[in-house]
Structure prediction request, 1318 residues.
Amino acid sequence: MVKLQLPNPGLEDRIPSHTELEVLEKEEADSRPKWDNKAQYMLTCVGFCVGLGNVWRFPYLCQSHGGGAFMIPFLILLVLEGIPLLHLEFAIGQRLRKGSVGVWSSIHPTLKGVGIAAMFVSFLVGLYYNTIIAWVMWYFFNSFQEPLPWSSCPLNDSRTDYIEECAKSSPVDYFWYRETLNISTSIDDSGSLQWWLLLCLTCAWGVLYVCTIRGIETTGKAVYVTSTLPYLVLTIFLIRGLTLKGSTNGIVYLFTPNVTELANPVTWLDAGAQVFYSFSLAFGGLISFSSYNSVHNNCEKDALIISVINGFTSIYAATVIYSIIGFRATERYDDCFDKNILTLMNAFDLPEGNVTQDNFEQMQHQCNTTNPTLFATLKFESCNLESFLNDGVEGTGLAFIVFTEAITKMPVSPLWSILFFIMLFCLGLSSMFGNMEGVLVPLQDLKIIPPKVPKELVTGLICMGSYFIAFIFVLKSGNYWLALFDSFAGSIPLLIIAFFEMFSVVYIYGIDRFNKDIEFMIGHKPNIFWQVTWRVISPLIMLVIFFFYFVVKVNEELLYSVWDPSYEEFPKTQKVEYPNWVYAIIVILAGVPSLTIPAFAIYKAIRNCCQKKNDHTGLMTSTSETSVNGNLKYSVNICLLNNAMHCEELMAWILEAKQPHLILPSPRIKPVGETGFEASSFLQGKGLRGQGYCIKMSKDLSVPPEIPKEDGRPKWDNKFQYILSCIGFAVGLGNVWRFPYLCQIHGGGAFLIPYFIALLFEGIPLLHLELALGQCLRKGSIGAWNAISPYLGGVGVGSWMVSVLVSLYYNTVLTWVMWYFINSFQEPLPWSVCPLNENRTGLNEECYESTTVNYFWYRKTLNITPDVTESGTLQWWLILCLAACWAIVYLCTIRGIETTGKAIYVTAIFPYLVLTIFLIHGLTLPGATDGLAYLFTPNLNTLKNPRVWLDAATQIFFSLSLAFGGLIAFSSYNPQKNDCEKDAVTVAIVNSMTSLYASIPVFSVLGFKATTGYWDCLDRNIISIINEFDLPEESIMRQNYTAWISFLNSSYPEKIAGLKLKSCDLQEFLDQSVSGTGLAFIIFTQAIILMPGSQAWAILFFIMLFSLGLSSMFGNIEGVFTPLLELPMISKSIPKELLSGIICLICFLIALCFTLGSGSYWIDIFDSYAGSLPLLVIAFFEVIGVAYVYKIKRFSKDVKWMTGRKPNLYWQITWRFISPLLLLIVFVAFVTLQIQKPSSYAAWNPKHEGFPMKEEKVYPPWVLAICVLLAVLPCVFVPLVALFHLIKRMCRNKDPSFVPPAVFSCQGANSNFSHPKE
Prediction:
């Protein structure tokens, strides 16, 4: 065995001993992140290792290198190269408990460059890897179409033939190169940014940020989906693939061994490279992941398991891929034969079915004998199954061209396309988790970023910086740049880093020390296999691969493939030399990471040589420990005593220089005298072992400082986060699509009078009451009302029930929004034109008789039934969108306010940005001022109508999201000394101003729509008149239309009457008002298609609606989640993530009823009954409970204790009298109107006589029973719970030992308080 070990002075001081390592693990238990369980760690590593390369590179290599014969070098090098290096990275990360930079600088300071190089590579690879995910998202969005947009060529501008570029190539090639990349013909021709890819890139980086926002705390949850779902999808594809015609041809072709390929050195080189890259070695991510493990984790076993899984996945994916490719090749082979058969039949006028594939050659020979002259003129295509199977391709070509073409030939192709791109998205995303970890942790190790900067902010800055740099990949030349990065940034540097990693551990750290470390960690010494591979075989293999790779690249002419429709051999890609300036880019991509290692080593050597012996630099070092959230835990100044300076003198110098020298007492730091502390194992862990250390400490720290007691309850990061969450919950879809409608139908500006009166006397008082109550009692809705009085427990249960019911249908509305958002990436928008009928001889009848937007909404989206009793089938596209919406809600609420508090920065702020953009654009549209004038023109006569006041009071109540329990839960996470009165006023004002602000862009756009419709009406009439009277073109204009009509009507009344001109009145078009889903999915979508750049406006609009709805869902889920946690029946040992997942899963399954053909009718029922009457009842009992059960005087004292001032007369009067009275009046009026109004619904029925008008139908009795149940069920808990406790108390009063509950006071409340048992 090789015993060579290079000298490494000071190593023992830089790394903790085994004893200190165990102590360090216990002390870091609360401060350092750790895996929740072993499965989470394994899934994360598998997700990082198993990436896109396993799906689209390994099958290609098998095919091109002898099929099954390629397995021999692959498995040999897997054992001798991949597994040893994987084990080494796991072991060294687990031993030193640091990221890549920290690990290598601990082994030797000059090796810090290895970690920095790995960080550079992770960063560069992450840039283009996430762009591939953006492409996957683009294809995923486009998969929700029937037929798929890459299944056929589009027509040219004159609509007389197919676009030439598509006709010459293929639909899949055209969609990839033109519709997706819009590729240029040279890397020199950058072109412009492609906005659709830019949006997808934004989504990709946004999703990655949300998943990595807190490191392994969030990625560890996401991998449960991203690492397991690809295997499920692969299995589904395998089952489906094996049932397809020709699948066995593909599998046989893939694995048929060609042993002669083993003599080709390139086969072994490609096998070694594939093993190396497929394990994601040398990126630094695996070292970081293993550093969060327990010290005594069996890293050897982990390495073997992940290696087996990785190798198996490659083979499994290859089987799936080539079963599909075999089907594609067989289909193309059959198509080729069919064309030849058709050619022969047409030429010789043969009967149909007389020529088949089986007798084709025989019929050819017979026809050639019969008429050789005619036969010689025929041109037959060469049909060879082998050649079609040989048409192999790797990388993006396999995913976006070959596989997409195969999918178009499958039945229900959109479903298979969606599954395929979901799988690719999960594979890519889980790999990106490791890349982000390989960048984030080294940055923390380098201490470039101050420890006080929150991890969320650091992650956000990295994602934002990467996002802006990645703009280069969404240019027209972006694909060429991506290929350049892929070829050079992730190849040579990784080989060099991996070699130095193994060399450093074996010959600098010392293989004997490493063996002892592993024995300490896993209980046994590494066997002879590990010794031989680490010392000799693996480094040698990497050197051989590096030199072979380097020689091949040097001798190879650097070319890139260009898609050029003007190329002579088009549709083949043209091989073109890179321009000279690209070579400088290549040197940067491959050279900078590689040269970082020697450059940093040289820098350290020069610095050590140049440092003066008596220089005090470095005698003082600042050591800090940070908690998991980045806050400073303790900080010390350490000085090294030597002959030049005593500790006291150095401390005087520190004080004079005003250096910070504060520490918190640590059990590992013992006091020595008055001015210093002896550092034992603490300093050893920091690499500062030795005599003569002293730590200066402030005198007043001899007494431990008072630290506020933590009750374990989550809390907001800051006040702004809390206010945003309340605003996000309060400001919802109703502010955008109901308030403008109410303003319009109730006197415009006059409606604001009752609106603000209701806000003042109903909305703000009840909002203040809920925020104060939650903050005071620090409980959710059920716990808060139970604490006030057990008789009021039903109020909390009722609000919990309402939150559940509303969440069910509210997230289905987000499902519709997501469906429209996905379809917004099409040109033209799918709701802008009617589809052809089945015969393709005319337009679809239902669409033609109604409108394009109505057809897309009712048929393409809802596929609605004509009656609520006719359920219909589940709509698979809505199920997928519903699953995605509940998954997003789960990810955002997985840890309550700890995760929603981060997401709210986007979901609550972004809608205001979009509204502002729409406002600016809307005001520039023709007719915008007409819409605004129509909206705000006051009609004071409407104030005499009681319905106006009722609608105003109802809108205020529902728009503030009162009585759901979410606001009580949100405020319960506040400190008790918070000004809840100011918060209530702020949230109420912001909410109301948002409603007004949203009305302006909405009606500016609707004014534009009305004006456009009015002009179209005039234009149609003008054309009819000009044609009828043979007038010169442009003789009648919109401006003189009225004059011409008056003249012609008086001169030729019979002719004018015969034209049947339409009545064109701008006021009538403006009167076409609608609220709710009709505004969003019909009226507004119709307005959007009239705008230039309609796709961009549609995308922005539906992103805004999704953000508004999602932030409201946070409050709904909080209103469900927090009360459950406080129930004794829910075990405290159940992880919060599991409980959130169960809630979301159950809600998803129940909400499937809304994806039926009758789903829209059921959503109207839930919205009308579950989210209306119960809220009024609950709110009324809330005010009564506080004012007359808890007592208003006690509540006023509590508010004074929290805010520093007693509630003034306004609050006293509204809480005692006005608000309860208003709620009672609204309740009575609401119930009266519901009783008087027939229980009916509007059905979309194409067979209805008045179609496209909706058909009014009466609810059947069993549906009416459900309506009553939805309205009564939450309300009935209020009296039932009170009655239960009354009976319970009456029974207990007979017991002489029973003591009635004490009066509860907020000022004595804390999170551990529980009401005395009855």
Remarks:
- The beta strands are 559-562, 574-577, 620-626, 632-640, 669-672, 676-679, 693-695, 1240-1243, 1255-1258.
- Residues 299-348 form the longest helix (50 residues).
